[in-house]
Amino acid sequence: MTGQSPAVVSASKLGLTFQTSDGPVQALSNVDLTIGKGEFVSFIGPSGCGKTTLLRVIADLEKPTSGSISVNGITPEQARQSRAYGYVFQAAALYPWRTIERNVALPLEIMGLSKTEQAARIKRTLDLVNLSGFEQKYPWQLSGGMQQRASIARALAFDADLLLMDEPFGALDEIVRDHLNEQLLELWERTNKTICFVTHSIPEAVYLSTRIIVMSPRPGRVSDVIESTLPKKRPLDIRETPEFLAIAARVRDGLRAGHSYED
Amino acid sequence: MDSFRDKLIPVISILAGVVVAWYVFAVILNAPFQRDLDRRAGETPDVVEFIGKTMAQPKPTLPAPHQVAVNFFENTFLRKVTSNRSLVYNAWVTLSSTLLGFAFGTALGILIAVGIVHVATLDRSLMPWIIASQTIPILAVAPMIIVVLAAIGVTGLIPKALISTYLSFFPVAVGMVKGLRSPELTHLDLMHTYNASPSQTFWKLRVPASVPFLFTSMKVAVAASLVGAIVGELPTGAVAGIGAKLLAGAYYSQTIDIWSALVAGSVVAALLVMVVGIAGRLVDRAMGGRPA
């Protein structure tokens, strides 16, 4: 036993340049980052700051053009091949021709689990996101918030230790969003997963995270890293406390600093 | 019920307009020949009598609607279905090669689309040929197909069906290429995060996503198949089928027969498109489609 668990995500001098018809665009530049097991890390910043790109690099949906990155101590590609993470997209991205149950079963089918094992996991994960009773519904029969919960269930179904979430609640209204934030925290506490969460909402980032990575655009880079001092148990009204507001103010300052040279 | 009436009234008004115009043209077009007949017979009918006669010729230039309707009714319902003159019998002959050709064409179209979507070389090499194939007039190709196949001993249903295939594979191929490429980027990314194999992505994502495109293109293809089957009957000297009826009618100037064969062809086409449409709706329902 080594005592300290290895980093789940570890990046150094990471850079990614897209070649577009308007010339090269630096989406990520010189990103250093270490995420430990069980952390809840939020990436926040204005659009174009590379937060989604960074998440996609971790997921091996994009290849970095410089620097190095490892996920669970191996390359992102190897991690993806060993199904190390569940990914939740901004849109629920449920397959419309599958029922909720069959949507959650999709990764399990692909990974070749037995029917009985599939059924057990579908039941467990749908319970976890409070969607029991909706197994036989088609996605269009569910509200936006329920669809997103189903897509989280799908990402949890195969028990990856890392959950990558790209603005999962961005398209939902404030009330549903609060509710889902609460549920997500509860879920994180129960499952002890590592979560990387992209958002552009300051309250959401502060409420959820153990650490907030503030990013700024052109080129996309990390401009501040804020450790949260909030306790692990967080009722919704923690957002009224001075401690919460102080962290939110720091995040806001970080965002403003990143922007200052532009306008 | 109201929406049904909303749809019915416009359709019926147009139909009524067409029938009226048809009668007018029947009188105008048949008048010269009738005048000729009357002059030879030394008759001088009044206007009403004259108009009546233009709509009762045995071989009119343009038969009146009721002449076609009577002929269609007699040849559809009053004859034994085994009779060579029965429109049911002739429609069945054409329908059987239509269906066979449609099945071949759909299978071929899907096969080509799968190839084009998965092999970049095929995408570039095959597509121009597929488009070129449809610019060749089918009337020019049909006799050659029949003759060449007869030379190697293939006769009967297959050559006719192949002409239907030639016309029907195209819409299916084009529609399915679009359908197999229709999945959204996030749906494809999702498969990538699961490290799904290309065949898993194909069966679990591309195929279900392409189903609505398949049925839309099958509607076009089945109508094209029918045209192919009719055209295929023209150069073969076929003794039965809607195409054979058309040809015989033209040969003996039986214009009424030609028109009722045309009506039979349209009825078959409408039924085929309807059947494909209903099948499409059933499949959509089974795949959790949202009721419109």
Automatic annotation (TrEMBL), chain A:
Gene3D superfamilies named in the record: P-loop containing nucleotide triphosphate hydrolases
UniProt keyword terms in alphabetical order: ATP-binding, Nucleotide-binding, Transport
Keyword Transport: yes
GO MF term (any one): ATP binding
Chain ranges of the ABC transporter domain: 9-242
InterPro entries: AAA+_ATPase, ABC_transporter-like_ATP-bd, ABC_transporter-like_CS, ABC_transporter_ATP-bind, P-loop_NTPase
UniProt xrefs under PROSITE patterns: ABC_TRANSPORTER_1, ABC_TRANSPORTER_2
Pfam families the record matches: ABC_tran
Family membership: Belongs to the ABC transporter superfamily.
PANTHER family in the record: ALIPHATIC SULFONATES IMPORT ATP-BINDING PROTEIN SSUB, TAURINE IMPORT ATP-BINDING PROTEIN-RELATED
Record protein name field: Pyrimidine ABC transporter, ATP-binding protein
Provenance organism: Mesorhizobium escarrei
Automatic annotation (TrEMBL), chain B:
Pfam short name (any one): BPD_transp_1
Keywords, comma-separated and alphabetical: Cell membrane, Membrane, Transmembrane, Transmembrane helix, Transport
Subcellular location per the Swiss-Prot or TrEMBL entry: Cell membrane
Gene3D superfamilies: MetI-like
Major subcellular location class: membrane
Domain ABC transmembrane type-1 intervals: 87-280
UniProt topology in membrane: Multi-pass membrane protein
InterPro entries: MetI-like (IPR000515), MetI-like_sf (IPR035906)
TM region positions: 12-31, 87-120, 126-154, 258-283
Entry similarity comment: Belongs to the binding-protein-dependent transport system permease family.
Protein name (record): Pyrimidine ABC transporter, transmembrane component 1
Species: Mesorhizobium escarrei
